[in-house]
Design a protein that fits this description.
heterodimer, A: Rossmann fold, 12 helices, 23% strand, B: 8-stranded mixed sheet, 11 helices, 12 strands
């Protein structure tokens, strides 16, 4: 398969009052055409910032200090602002977490959708409205022509998220970045949206990056998972490997600590002690070391690189950033 | 299992309506039917889980139990006393026996009070112990929730979300309560911290012999911590049963859909799983559907479902379900 996206050693930091907040500390990965990647981690692990860095959709205080992003071979990190603007919304679509605040409350749904089409394509407003209606239908909104004339407050949360998805698809992007698109929704609505995205992905053959904090949600959805912690990618593997043979102590701890509908109820959950790191100082060693029960001396002094696990091969090796060989010590399935 | 036990909390036909103003100029009156006739009981020492989607009235139920919302009608009996009709002075005395842990530990601690002051206040208000013992008791509580007693002189902003929730739990314990409403106590926390707080809640329940109403939208968490579970939808209880019955043999079509929507961290299972995808959204609580509240989204609904309101009826062993077509559905899906 051909690579749609290549990210090399990406660093992003925020200027704050007394220095810098190091949100992304050297993230490297690639994405195939048509592939769906899940990015999972806790709040502040750098998952959103690293993915928004791909298209430089960052607040003014943020700055990409190192690294390179290539979409379809084109260098995005050093491209001009106008070039990046033409890529956002056409080649790369975005779906944000909170459909309640990501739509403009003063604009009709139709006007908001049309805006995205006429920016990138030379067509009339009437034609653009027709297209907008087509996409609203595609995301399962009935009575689409009428909905175009409504305002966001007239729609429910689930409907609004469907509008956001339609908006992301308008210009047939080859990559969609979905930043926690179901976190603000109820579980039955979440199930609707997940089915919709799986369906659309097949129909439109696009690549999707799905950012979430919910490891369970990804199990039925993505091809590959990248686990982030403290601004680093700590593990990356195809779906089944992450759940069946996780190799990073953080991934293992996370999987064990999630109560599922199958775990023995009433027992104490194995929990990860401590709290996620603050990002004001770059750690001298592994970012997870302070909470890790398997740590060795080396973990405190050297940051482990994300490296392919010996024995894993093929297009998609299992990569993990850990000094300790956790093979055979992971979760018992 | 509760044959010989006395319920600690008995809720009967509880109703809470919020009058609101709608329209562009607030010129129309309307009523939000937050809770519409809810009855259940909570036994001494158990955890009752209360689940449902946002806006179903689960938090309002918790608040009404503590009289943080004055009930529109119905009764809440705590240890035999109807607290919905208690005079203010007696209600205040009752408050030390019932406490709450809120969802958001960031906004529910006073930023200007040290942890020690926040924990000592309920003890002074309710005269739990003599003044000279307060510091000792504060230290004990802080230890009980897994923190170092020397944090008593520090302020909330110095703590992480998980630590703050531990402090909120300590504060709820300060008045030596028998019953605690846990209103989504882990929803605002990081995934790796959630398990710590669930374990803590279970530990202190054992230690202090507490009774919990555990409100949450995360079904896996509710299953883990609860003895019995009630499922709410749009102001009504749809199903209430022991945890094993509810998760092992759910009967109400809504419960079934809710359970099938929960993602599982198991790719093999997810591949083979058949999901029930509910159509549409939760209806509006201002103008709730007639008959069964769930009928507009229910795959089994017939005409009768939009006409009569189903009552919670016992299907054996305290497994109560509110569905008019239950017998037919059970036959159909068997």
């Amino acid at each position: 398969m051909t690579k749609l996206l290549e990210v090399n050693n990406l660093h992003t930091r925020f200027k704050v009052r007394n220095g810098y907040l190091h949100a992304v500390n050297g993230v490297s990965f690639s994405l195939d055409k048509g592939e769906m990647l899940g990015v999972v981690g806790e709040s502040g692990c750098g998952k959103s910032v690293s993915m928004m860095s791909l298209i430089r959709l960052l607040p003014p205080a943020a700055q990409i200090t190192e690294g390179e992003v290539r979409i379809d071979g084109e260098d995005i990190t050093h491209a001009s602002v106008s070039r990046v603007n033409s890529i956002r919304g056409s080649k790369v679509g975005m779906i944000f977490q909170d459909p309640m605040t990501s739509l403009n409350p003063f604009m009709k749904i139709g006007d908001q959708l049309v805006e995205g089409i006429v920016y990138h394509k030379k067509i009339t407003k009437a034609e653009a409205l027709k297209q907008a209606a087509k996409y609203l239908k595609m995301v399962g909104i009935s009575n689409a022509e009428h909905r175009l004339t409504e305002y966001p407050h007239q729609l429910s949360g689930g409907m609004r998220q469907r509008v956001m998805i339609a908006m992301a698809l308008l210009n047939e992007p080859s990559l969609v970045i979905a930043d926690e698109p179901t976190t603000a929704l109820d579980v039955t609505i979440q199930a609707q949206i997940v089915e919709l995205v799986k369906d659309l992905r097949e129909k439109l053959n696009m690549s999707i990056i799905w950012i979430t904090h919910d490891l369970s949600l990804l199990a039925g959805m993505v091809d590959r998972i990248m686990v982030m912690y403290g601004g680093y990618v700590v593990e990356e593997a195809v779906l089944d490997d992450i759940y069946n043979s996780p190799l990073h102590p953080y991934t293992i701890g996370l999987l064990k600590s999630i109560p599922s509908l199958k775990t023995e109820a009433g027992s104490r959950l194995p929990s990860i002690p401590g709290a996620p790191p603050n990002l004001f100082t770059v750690p001298t060693g592994c970012p997870f070391a302070p909470r890790c029960e398997h740590k060795i001396d080396r973990c405190q002094t050297e940051v482990p690189a994300l490296a392919a696990v010996p024995g894993s091969s093929g297009d998609r090796p299992h990569r993990v950033a850990c000094w300790v060989d956790m093979r055979g010590r992971g979760v018992e399935q | 299992m509760h044959a010989n036990q006395k319920p600690l909390v008995v809720v009967e036909n509880l109703v809470k309506h919020f009058p609101i103003k709608i329209g562009a100029f607030g010129n129309q009156s309307a009523v939000v039917h937050a809770i519409d006739g809810v009855s259940f009981e909570i036994y001494q020492g158990e955890t009752l889980g209360l689940v449902g989607e946002s806006g179903c009235g689960k938090s309002t139920t918790g608040f009404a139990l503590l009289q943080l919302h004055k009930a529109t009608s119905g009764s809440v009996k705590f240890d035999g006393v109807d607290i919905a009709r208690l005079p203010a002075k007696e209600l205040r005395a009752m408050r030390k026996r019932v406490q709450i842990v809120f969802q958001d530990p960031y906004s529910t601690l006073n930023p200007r009070m040290t942890i020690g002051e926040a924990l000592a206040e309920p003890m002074r208000v309710h005269k739990i112990c003599p003044e000279k013992d307060i510091q000792h008791r504060v230290a004990q509580l802080i230890r009980d929730v897994g923190l170092n007693p020397n944090v008593a002189n520090r302020y909330p902003h110095e703590f992480s979300g998980g630590q703050r929730q531990r402090i909120c739990i300590a504060r709820a314990l300060a008045s030596d309560p028998e019953f605690i409403v846990c209103d989504e106590p882990i929803s605002a926390l990081d995934v790796s911290i959630q398990a710590q707080i669930i374990n803590l809640l279970m530990d202190i329940q054992e230690k202090y012999n507490l009774t919990y109403l555990f409100i949450a939208h995360d079904l896996a968490v509710v299953r883990h911590i609860s003895d019995r579970v009630a499922v709410m939808y749009l102001g009504k209880i749809m199903e209430i049963a022991s945890k094993d019955d509810l998760f092992g043999h759910p009967m109400h079509p809504y419960t079934k859909a809710l359970l099938s929507a929960v993602p599982e961290a198991d790719p093999d299972l997810e591949r083979t799983r058949k999901r029930i995808i509910l159509q549409g959204d939760v209806s509006n609580a201002i103008d709730p559907p007639s008959g069964c509240r769930f009928h507009p989204r229910c795959a089994y609904a017939t005409e009768i479902c939009s006409q009569s309101i189903p009552e919670l009826t016992d299907q054996g062993g305290g497994h109560r379900v509110a569905c008019l077509r239950l017998a037919e559905i059970e036959k159909e899906t068997a």
